[in-house]
Amino acid sequence: MSALRLRTPLLQIALALSVVAPVAAQEADPIAALLDQPPPAPEPAPPPPSYIPPPASPELTAPTYVDDTGRSPEAAPSPVELSYEARLRSSSASAQGLQGPMDGAWTLRGGEGTALYSLQLVDNGLEPLEGAWRDPRRRGSTDSSGFLSAIQRTGGELIASFYPRPGAGVATLVLNAAADGTWVGQLEEGGQRRPVVLRRD
What we know:
Elements: H1 2-25, H2 30-36, H3 79-97, E1 104-110, E2 115-122, E3 130-134, E4 145-147, E5 150-154, E6 157-162, E7 171-177, E8 183-189, E9 192-200
Antiparallel strand pairs: 1-2, 1-9, 2-3, 3-4, 5-6, 6-7, 7-8, 8-9
């Protein structure tokens, strides 16, 4: 009787364990649950950007000349072309900044305002001046332009000479600097002297 009483609590414990054990075994494993999940679906790729074609150049029906404003045979310049042009302009401005005060295009006019000669002078600030002349009164003539034979600037005085016609005598300029940036003086040509003004174009 005492043995039965001893075994009864043990049986009850064993029965209790046999009922609890399957329940504990059936609890979900969190790691297994994660591993059993299907992989997430890939996100859809963004749609490709829509292509916007550049504006079409107007169809040309006649030649485009340099002085035609608002017309161009080509499309607008690209950013690369604009950058290249900006670099060219910067280089040109830097080079121009190194030139002397006489460098550039000038027009020699008589006292009545008539253009007698166009001069293109080269002044790099270090070497002697150089230049070329052109007679606008004889356009198209093969002997209407040439190089200055000599040109010298000393302080506020400019002296230049050239041969305006083959076989003719030398023409000589003697000019003095004026306050407004022009050069005023005389041109001796063909044995005659006339008052002249040299002004930058």
